[in-house]
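To whoever is covering the structure queue this week,

Two jobs came back overnight. Logging them here so there's a record in the thread.

Job A:
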Amino acid sequence: MTSQPSLHQPPLLPLNNTQPDRVYSGKSSSFSSVSFLFSTSLYCFGSSHVDYIPTSYLHYKQWRNACLPPSRRSFTFTPCKLAGMALTKEMATGEVEFHGVLIVGGGICGLATALALHIKGIDSLVLEKAESLRATGAGISLKANGWRALEQFKVSEELRELAVPLTGMDMKSIRSDKVIKVPYRSECRCVKRSDLVETLARHLPGGSIRFGCQVEEISLDPVTRYPIVSTSNGSTIRAKVLIGCDGANSVVAKFLGLKPVRFLHLWAARGLTTFPEGHSFRNKFLNLVGKGMTFRLVPIDDKTIYFSAIQSRLPKGCANSREPALIRQVALQAMQGYPEDILDVVRSCEIESVSLAQICYRAPWNMLLQPFQEGTVTVAGDAMHAMGPFIGQGGSASLEDALVIARCLAETAIGVGDDRKPARSVQEVLRSYVNQRRWRILRLCVQAFLNGQLIVASSKLKKVLLRAVVKVLFKGSATSQWHDEYDCGSL
């Protein structure tokens, strides 16, 4: 019996002149038959000792036949094999590349997925549309479940040195002296997004990230059903697996047919403030509620503060602003009645760190039936489960996704010895990944949705009903600490 290729070997991808039968594209485009035929020269055939270029029609027919299911093969064959995991050349317009795993999006989830795969011995290529590493949002809180994932990625100790442990949360209204204190039962730290993405990227092999590469079209090969990606620079990339880690407005999610994200009537202005002589805030998450605004302050270390000002109303023309000075000015105008030391945090912020974004989410009721996978295409992170920042689990859940998908894909490796399980198909392991994650993210998204509705609800009756639902479904905890206890397992 002929062995099937695994992700630890390059994918068997056909070159043919038929058009892909499934396409998602922002604009119309087509493949070049000439580039398909030219790219056959990139393939190497042979035994484990000899690799050679297919120079005859018979060799090409053998290679293409290898991609067909057994019932459709016209003759027996020796499986083709590439010399490396990915054949990479200087790209010219219209040239075709081949990769085992292609990751769209070079944010936290995309880089974590690439690193997890690298640890499992699987090469990948990350496509990032920005020209450099991006860290929009300034800071991110990571709960105990997120730190457990980072331990598996072997970067937790580096990051712990950059962030102090938080002991709990203080919640209060600016119109009252009453403080609700919630002690943390497990590890929680806030890190700079730039520190997190740079640490993840630093542990990847050179050439793992391709910047300035925006995906414009995704299609499936009509024979192998493997994904084909066209980018803005005119290149075509074929892969055995495509993972969309490209955020809430994911191109891959649109290809899979996921419902678009919804938006709350809330905007979050975020930023960082550094006090050279140190700040006076305790190592606690501070949540201050004012009229039309919820202000959140989290120490990162002894000198740096991360803040988020969540507003329900913005002046006309400011909702889409990318001007940091204007975003800061609007936030300060909405903070009437806030303590002076809180106002100083916003006034003294690092202006380049300030950003504004409307809060979006994927509707929890869509989580039950949405197709998170088609063939060997799937999604992770915000592309899968965008949620508001109301339970502090968005980043940690994305790290869980990265760990689980890498662990599942590693099961495609050919078993060695009697104590190894036989290799599983890529589609099978991706289906397992989706099944493992669906119920976990459903619970997260439901609580984040309910907490968000509590903020925007204007009716007292609606608030009472929402609190009752939270109490029934989540053990009466609006702080979601029981989510922190979740362990997605080892890599």
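Job B:
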Amino acid sequence: MPSHFKNASNFNIEGDTHIYTKKYSHYGDQPPKRCVSDLREHIAAGALHNSAERCDAPKCHPETRVAVQDELVSWICDGDRDCMPKRMMWLTGPAGAGKTAIMGSVAETCQRKGILGATHFFSSFSGSANRRSKRFLIPTLAYQLVQHQAMPQVAKRILSAVERNPAVFEQNLEVQLEQLILAPLRAARKHPERSDWPKVILIDGLDECEADQYHDSTQNNAPRRSKEDDQTEILHVLKKAASDPNFPFRIVIASRPEHAIKGFFTDAAKFLTREIFLDGKYNPDADMALFLESKFANMRRQYHLSPSWPDPSVSHTLISNASGQFIYVATVGRFMEGSGGDPDQLLKQVLGLPGIAASTNVYAPLDALYTPILSSNPDPDAHLSIL
């Protein structure tokens, strides 16, 4: 049909005008504000790591759980350099092992570095009831991506998805993941600023997620879901995200080693997942071993060293020399990272120090370590950065 307005200009249309289209939506460069409001209504705001509800949540004190935090942040930032890169990390251990404190501290570290994508802290005993339900997980993650300044193109696509399908919040987790997260990421995959995107999503307390019921509980034969059903559903959805090549985030999940969760990570997600198990009580030797492995892993990545470097006996020797003093291995780590020399030579220098028993003076091994460091570099500022 030829246009009635071909080559026309400088004219007005007056009177009642009706325009019919099969598909039409227009809101300029930004979806309407009500899309943000709709999304906001379906999140668990208290589950964010920096929410008011979590103002008294535990955090790691300085110099505690340093090894675990360093290993998590190192993996988040540089895990692609590992020989067998993983997309998921399971931080696990018994109640009271410090999982939530570690996750809270890691979240703050990642936020300072600009690499935090989103967080969700489940809680079955404190805070709002929506922190116990799976239904708020995906919208809460999506809302935080919308707020991230480095991802404006993704944000617009998430809000457009809410505009197209306002009922998405009542659909299952897999549909929510696809429409609110994966599809927007896929559409923006070639965006030039993708290198500035955040790197990680942190989910704490998965074992505290309780079951949502969808049937009339007054009916004797009504099927009831268990919390394990909902927790496993969440894990399968997160596995789908981690397996998608357009999903740029690593995922850290913290929980107790409950049977269903442990079964998932040792079976369905075995090849996608690294595991860190926390002892139920503070064990300085185990913490030092994990700290050294984290530092050595960083050096292997940085200097392209063999996966078997250094020999396992090295850690045993350093831990023995430390005599229970964590600051000893921390100083070794800073010395090797800050000296800028050949890692093998630096390690030989440290291992060549005389072994000194700490039975009479707990600081004797540390004194023996400090002496060559102070004498190896005349720059006082360099000493301060190491010591």
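Note for Job B: The chain has 14 helices and five strands.

Please reply-all if you pick these up so we don't duplicate work.
Q.
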